[in-house]
Design brief:
This protein is mainly alpha-helical. About 45% of the residues lie in helices and about 10% in strands. Strands 1-2 form a two-stranded parallel ribbon. Helix 2 packs across helix 3. The longest helix has 17 residues. The protein starts with 9 loop residues before the first strand and ends in a 7-residue tail after the last strand.
Amino acid sequence: LHAEAAISVGIILTRGSSLHDNIRAAILRFAHTRGVTCYDDLRPFGVEPTKRQETAVTRRMDSAKCDFTTAWSEVFCSDKFGQASTHWRKLEDRVRRGVGNPCPLLLIGIPEGVLTF
């Protein structure tokens, strides 16, 4: 888009390193803070798991002998915040390889410290 003069600058907002490294603990803390113990407790937050996710949570509870809150938070994080999704380290690697050149880029990494529950 920069080469076609459609944009002058690119702004990318993603998880910073501290947020990416601690996202599992943060989601688990959220679930404990909000009293999440079943799927009904997630609905007020707009979370509607798929059948596949429900199956994965059940499997996790059985195999790891853990409670719903722990199993759900692990499955949720794997689905939404895994290594395949964009985060600061992946963004840094791409910029170092020259992806985006010659467009000026403003890169913002959200730190863990901004999370509140």
